[in-house]
Amino acid sequence: MNVLLLSFTLINLLVFCKSFDVHQELSYAIRQYSLLAKNLEDDDRFIYTGDPNNAEWDKSTDSMSWTVGFYTGTLWKLYKLTKDDYWKQQALRKQETIRHRQFDESNHDVGFIIMSSFGNALTLTGDKSFEAIIIQAAHSLATRYHSKSGVFRSWDNGAWNSGVDGDVLVIADNMMNLDLMFTAAALSGNETFAQMAISHSEKTIENHFRENGQGVFHVVAFDETTGNVRRKFNYQGYADDSTWARGLAWVLHGFVTAYEHTKTRTFLEYAERAAEYFVDHLPEDWIPYYDFDCPFTEVYQPRDTSAAAIASHALLKLFKATGKVKYFQQAENILESLVSPNYRADGKSSYKIPAIFVNGTVFFNAGNFNTAIIYGDMYFLEALDMYTTGSGYKNTFITWMLGLIFVHIFRIF
Ligand SMILES: *[C@@H]1O[C@H](CO)[C@@H](O)[C@H](O)[C@H]1NC(C)=O
Ligand SMILES: *[C@@H]1O[C@H](CO)[C@@H](O)[C@H](O)[C@H]1NC(C)=O
After folding, report:
1. Which residues of the chain are under the pLDDT cut of 50?
2. How remote is the CA of residue 192 from the centroid of ligand 1, in Å?
3. Cα separation, 340 vs 357, whole angstroms
4. In this record, what's one Pfam family (predicted)?
5. What is the CATH class of 1-43+244-413?
């Protein structure tokens, strides 16, 4: 008994005691976002990215951008982590500027926008008036559901995305917007929302995942008339048959979230497949190149810290769902590397941006990389929150503490 507990404690010690200092990283995040919040206090423009060498984020983001919810989401996470009312007041004020987006039927990202703002607001304040906004947003996304194909139409067709007449375009990222549908189903009792999300998830398994675990496609075009697949391609990654890192991170996060809502084993299985591919294809420092198949041995290719942050949060969720310690360790390895001077927004003396990370890739093909990205920061805080307070971690931590106490008791007798 004694020996068993001792070895158990030692294993836990080895596994869970790392150099990564949560409190130090939280203080750093607070410092950076205090500067940013001050800068945006009387400014209702929107931010998305930032040049590391500028003291201000780029404020030219359109109010109709898909990214307008993430700054509010970051403020809500800071409130959750600090319990400081300052962040709550900032978040409440900022989210009013995007309230109208609950009616947006023009693309699939109403899920990202409303869940990172009003979704967090509901969870953290318990104010039930936010429920109606979430349900309305789900109705908006439901208008994009194409029954014949069984999927949400992510984008309308346009020259910019090579969508032609009769296409129903679905991007891997769309998995992230299903959280809205599952949440709205639970809040309203309208099961249609959940059924649509389940069908979309099943279609993603069928069509986005490649055979034999060869990563995922970014875009699948269905035929509006027949519902069959027309073609598959990559909008944001390196090549049609490559795996764009953030796309895979969205898929991983989306499937573990779909599992949390539905407890469907297949969704968990595909989250694990996505995780395996992601981790197996990382470079030595755990931060992915923007695409897993880009020619980084031949020519400089940028990393994507945002994909790393999203994946670290998803891996912690996966640890909680499966109890497999490897996912916790993988998440921790990613977090440790992210907070090294290599990727921190205070990592070089020339950096001035009040962000948490630099070296995010927005869109490599458009030359938009090595920048701060708002959702990279937000998902890092999500991960930090789960790493410190998430029930999965806490349970393991409590087991470890109990083990330690028992060993001491046995030593005394
Ligand atoms: C549930 O939501 C769907 C999609 O918006 C809608 O068509 C349907 O009328 C709703 N059902 C109820 C009972 O409100
Ligand atoms: C991170 O971005 C900076 C420029 O801001 C660049 O000099 C550096 O090489 C990038 N790091 C990596 C690993 O690509």
Report:
1. 1, 391-392, 394, 413
2. 7
3. 10
4. Glyco_hydro_88
5. mainly alpha
What is the per-residue pLDDT for 308? 99
- Beta carbons of 58 and 45 less than 8 angstroms apart: no
Q: What's the pLDDT at 212?
A: 84
Predicted confidence at residue 390, as pLDDT, reads: 54
Query: CA–CA distance from 156 to each of 159, 170, 193, 203, 351 (Å)?
Result: 10, 10, 21, 19, 38
User: Six-digit token pair at 191?
Assistant: 């099961």
What is the structure's pLDDT at 406? 57
Distance CA 127, CA 315 (A): 30
Write the residue with the smallest CA distance to atom 5 of ligand 2.
370
Counting Cβ atoms within 10 Å, is residue 38 exposed (0-12), middle (13-18) or buried (19+)?
exposed
Q: Considering only CA atoms, which residue is closest to atom 13 of ligand 1?
A: 190
What's the CA gap between 327 and 238, in Å, rounded?
A: 27
pLDDT at 14: 53
Query: How far is ligand 2, taken at its centre, from the CA of residue 289, in Å?
Result: 11
Q: 371 and 319 in contact (C-beta within 8 Å)? A: no
What was the pLDDT predicted at 410? 56
Identify the nearest ligand to the CA of 341 by its number.
2
pLDDT attached to residue 213: 84
What does pTM read for this prediction?
0.92
Of 145, 183, 192, 199, the residue with max ligand 1 atoms within 8 A of its CB, to mutate for a pocket test, comes to: 192
> Does 188 sit in the ligand 1 pocket, CB within 6 Å?
no
Best residue among 294, 358, 369 to mutate for probing ligand 2's pocket (most ligand atoms within 8 Å of CB) is 358
Mutate to test the pocket of ligand 1, among 102, 105, 134, 139 (most ligand atoms within 8 A of CB): 139
